[in-house]
């Protein structure tokens, strides 16, 4: 029987932070989320922005998507793929190289970096293909053909990132809009696929453990309509943004996602914050798509309302929910949210609500609501880091590797 000892830095000399994919990337997601918003609040308050930098609004959208969201996506996939395939997790130097690529991308696209745009593009574009290669090897070896769809999605995200850079290089006038639309559409597909796997499973297991007889249901026709309508939004948003067709497709998708969620017994999760936050995050998806339909079909709400409901509401809440749950489970700790963690959930829901409602408020209330949303967002992720930075950087509680 082989015994393994824990060195001061990690298992068999591997630094603890590089022992598993979720550790560095969940930490980077938790750090980048408040940092990016603090920079954006400062820009809004002062108007300060280098004349030679890429447009401020374009940079903000790019970094929230390819900085914050992609860090969380990388952490999730680098942790999920070993579970799906039974292969060893990427760790040590290989994982460190991916972390370095992500960090390099953030540095070179920063407004004060001074890095030539072409060089910045090459460096920033390298991360997602490198992540794809790291994931492809175990997926292909294990014959997990269905899960290789995530490699296609990473390829589309690389294309979305390229569209941003083509505009910044002066090669494509509408590149940032196209890149943001494609990127958000692909992330929504990831949310749709992953949410459809983990929410029913986690809920079913939790209800069974509590002896609750309510059945968690997934209907094949609803699943197909949800997937097809969500996919259909991507080309429509690229070609006919804000059109009646875009609104109609969004309405179908909103109904499909809402019907899907209705079968997952949300009301029975309210006593378990670590579970209901997943449902709360997913609930933002049909709400956001309903707002999109309301704008596209009748012009009833501001064009940005659905976007922030989906990103600050749906994407960010699900990211926080998954990170807080996975970090506990994969470090041998009880999967129970602390009071500080629950506070981080509440603050993020408040931030998303304020950011979504801000454009609909009277003129004098818009700016205070925007700043309040930003501060609630920062406080939410500060609370997450308070609880989870030690968990992500220290050994597992059960003494096992990883």
UniProtKB/TrEMBL annotation:
Pfam families: NnrS. The chain crosses the membrane at residues 25-44, 64-81, 93-112, 118-137, 149-166, 178-200, 274-294, 306-328, 340-358, 370-389. InterPro entries: NnrS. Keywords: Membrane, Transmembrane, Transmembrane helix. This is NnrS family protein. It comes from Azospirillum oleiclasticum. The lineage of its organism: Bacteria, Pseudomonadati, Pseudomonadota, Alphaproteobacteria, Rhodospirillales.
């Amino acid at each position: 029987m082989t015994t393994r000892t824990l060195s001061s830095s990690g298992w068999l000399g591997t630094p603890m932070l590089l022992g598993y994919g979720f550790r560095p990337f969940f930490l980077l997601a938790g750090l980048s989320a408040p940092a990016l918003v603090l920079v954006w609040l400062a820009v809004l308050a002062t108007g300060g922005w280098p004349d030679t930098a890429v447009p401020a609004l374009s940079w903000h959208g790019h970094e929230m998507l390819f900085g914050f969201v992609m860090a969380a996506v990388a952490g999730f996939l680098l942790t999920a793929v070993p579970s799906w395939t039974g292969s060893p997790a990427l760790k040590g130097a290989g994982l460190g190289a991916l972390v370095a690529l992500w960090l390099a991308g953030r540095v070179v696209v920063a407004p004060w970096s001074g890095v030539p745009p072409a060089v910045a593009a090459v460096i920033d574009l390298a991360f997602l293909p490198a992540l794809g290669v790291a994931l492809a090897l175990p997926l292909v070896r294990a014959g997990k053909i269905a899960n290789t769809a995530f490699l296609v999605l990473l390829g589309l995200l690389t294309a979305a990132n390229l569209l941003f850079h083509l505009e910044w290089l002066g090669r494509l006038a509408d590149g940032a809009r196209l890149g943001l639309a494609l990127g958000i559409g692909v992330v929504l597909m990831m949310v749709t696929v992953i949410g459809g796997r983990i929410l029913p499973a986690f809920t079913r297991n939790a209800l069974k453990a509590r002896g609750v007889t309510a059945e968690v249901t997934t209907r094949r026709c609803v699943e197909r309509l949800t997937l097809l309508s969500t996919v259909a939004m991507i080309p429509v948003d690229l070609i006919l943004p804000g059109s009646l067709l875009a609104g109609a497709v969004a309405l179908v998708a909103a109904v499909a996602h809402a019907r899907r969620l209705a079968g997952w017994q949300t009301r029975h999760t309210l006593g378990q914050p670590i579970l209901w936050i997943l449902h709360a995050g997913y609930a933002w998806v049909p709400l956001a798509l309903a707002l999109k339909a309301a704008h596209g079909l009748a012009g009833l709400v501001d064009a940005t309302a659905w976007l922030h409901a989906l990103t600050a509401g749906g994407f960010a809440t699900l990211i926080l929910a998954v990170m807080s749950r996975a970090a506990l489970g994969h470090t041998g700790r009880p999967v129970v949210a602390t009071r500080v963690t629950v506070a981080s959930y509440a603050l993020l829901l408040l931030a998303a609500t304020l950011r979504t409602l801000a454009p609909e408020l009277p003129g004098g209330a818009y700016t205070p609501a925007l700043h309040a949303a930003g501060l609630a967002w920062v406080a939410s992720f500060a609370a997450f880091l308070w609880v989870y930075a030690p968990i992500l950087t220290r050994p597992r509680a059960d003494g096992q590797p990883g």
